[in-house]
Write a structure and sequence with these properties.
Layout: E1 3-7, H1 11-20, E2 29-34, H2 37-46, E3 52-55, H3 61-71, E4 75-78, H4 85-95, E5 98-101, H5 116-119, H6 122-127, E6 131-134, H7 142-153, E7 157-167, H8 181-188, E8 192-196, E9 199-203, E10 209-214, E11 218-225, H9 229-236, E12 242-248, H10 251-262, E13 271-273, E14 276-278, H11 280-287, E15 301-312, E16 315-326, H12 327-334, H13 338-355, E17 363-366, H14 372-382, E18 386-389
Parallel strand pairs: 1-2, 1-4, 2-3, 4-5, 5-6, 6-17, 7-12
Antiparallel strand pairs: 7-15, 8-9, 8-12, 10-11, 11-12, 13-14, 15-16, 16-18
Helix pairs in contact: 1-13, 3-4, 7-14, 13-14
The structure holds NADPH dihydro-nicotinamide-adenine-dinucleotide phosphate (NDP).
NADPH dihydro-nicotinamide-adenine-dinucleotide phosphate (NDP) binds near residues 8, 36, 58, 183 and 291.
Length: about 400
């Protein structure tokens, strides 16, 4: 699995390519493909070793299949958009390549991401002798691994998980999103949801909030949201009683978002404009800065981690595992900002573990189903060192 095809030349794609291009002992051939070829050219020209480029519309599985055959790729990394997950998985099955992504499938006309569509591919990947690894960014991705590692080394049973995600960086724009604007705004404006006693409970969008004192960042207001890793963790962490996800937003971001929602700019249904149908959120995306363009002047840090409570040797115990990433350090390493970096580095690590056979499987897997130890070691070595604090950080009140 050393011939890599990376699809998506955005903020995350930039980091994945640059990190993989420094690991030529593992990846003998790397091709970057995306809808806009000029974006591939720019990233390839900045990489530390030769990267081939190609144009592809990954909504079309036949194009994906033919590109896999042409490049001879045996592992495809999908860092395009969640809308392309199924067409890229279909292309992989048709051409016989393994698959890895960072975000679960979401239909373009409905803001409802969930794993069911991709989990349904299990038998097809298994029968083809192929592995599909889902959600290998930071959240989902590293947060799942933190839980799996905690379960392996610190707990007999995990009962409560609070995932806390803070970006305390300043990019200098009045309003911008740190990853694809369309996907980001769909996620943030959706209803909140958390898992308790075997059921999913809904809250109004961003209605529940708390202050949390983030390491190296300080106290920030964070909001309860639904996030996809909870769906797979609910399936894979036995005995879990409650799981919540919290993300920080500045007052400025929330005010802009409220105005955009109120005037209808976040709608995803078609609207007739000057004789043609447009989707307001797609139009808004065209106006907002590209996530990759935020990197140069971005200052400040992110802190993302898992506060976990459970039982070890019949005693209650708390653990807080987290990473702090500095936007300027991310930029110095890859020319990307910290959100792209914290996503792209774990993606590269997942690909590395698959390519070297450390992580193996036939079928469709979430990262917490695999051995967390080599992944945790690689995080420390490849730019995302983590810390463990226990027992003094408690669950969110
Ligand atoms: P960007 O918008 O910066 O990049 C997306 C790229 O995908 C663009 O280059 C775009 O091309 C390309 N693309 C879109 N549609 C197609 C298509 N049909 N065929 C081929 N290429 C296409 O987004 P990011 O890099 O910020 O995010 C990439 C992915 O990472 C997203 O799925 C996002 O949800 C995920 N993510 C995951 C995180 C995690 O922690 N797990 C965190 C952050 C992001 P073009 O420029 O032509 O539009």
């Amino acid at each position: 699995m050393n011939n890599l095809l990376i699809i998506g030349a955005g903020g995350v794609g930039n980091v994945v390519v640059k990190k993989c291009a420094r690991a030529r002992d593992i990846f003998s051939k790397i091709t970057l493909a995306s809808r806009t070829l000029s974006k591939c050219e720019k990233i390839a020209s900045e990489a530390d070793s030769p990267v081939e480029i190609a144009q592809v519309d990954a909504d079309d599985s036949a194009q994906v299949e033919s590109l896999i055959r042409k490049t001879g790729a045996d592992l495809v990394i999908n860092v395009a958009l969640p809308y392309q997950d199924l067409s890229i998985m279909d292309g992989c099955l048709a051409a016989g390549a393994h698959y890895l992504d960072t975000a679960n499938y979401e239909p373009p006309d409905e803001a409802r991401f969930c794993y069911k569509w991709q989990w349904d591919y299990f038998d097809r990947f298994k029968d083809a002798g192929l592995m599909a690894l889902l959600g290998c960014g930071f959240d989902p991705g590293v947060t799942n691994i933190f839980c799996a590692w905690a379960l392996k080394h610190h707990f007999d049973e995990i009962h409560y998980i609070d995932i806390v995600d803070c970006n305390a960086g300043d990019h200098g724009h009045p309003f911008a999103t740190n990853f694809n604007p369309e996907i980001n705004i769909r996620e943030v404006s959706a209803k909140g949801r958390y898992y308790e006693d075997g059921k999913w409970k809904e809250t109004d969008p961003l209605a529940v909030h708390r202050t949390f004192d983030f390491p190296e960042v300080g106290p920030k207001e964070m909001y309860l949201m639904y996030h996809e890793e909870m769906e797979s963790l609910a399936r894979h962490i036995p005995g879990i009683k409650r799981m919540r996800f919290w993300m920080t937003f500045s007052e400025n971001y929330l005010t802009h978002l409220r105005v955009l929602e109120n005037v209808g700019m976040t709608r995803i249904d078609p609207v007739l404009f000057e004789g043609r149908q447009i989707i307001p959120l797609q139009f808004l995306k065209a106006l907002l800065p590209e996530p990759s363009s935020l990197a140069a002047g971005y200052k400040g840090k992110t802190c993302i981690g898992c506060i976990i409570e459970g039982v070890k040797d019949n005693k209650r115990k708390n653990v807080f595992i987290y990473n702090v990433c500095d936007h300027q350090d991310a930029f110095a390493d890859t020319g990307g900002q910290a959100i792209s970096y914290t996503t792209g580095v774990p993606t590269m690590i997942g690909a590395k573990l698959m390519a070297t056979g450390v992580w193996q499987g036939k079928g469709v897997f979430n990262v917490e189903q695999l051995n967390p130890d080599p992944f945790m070691e690689n995080l420390n070595e490849l730019g995302l060192p983590w810390q463990v604090v226990f027992p003094d950080t408690h669950l969110v009140d």
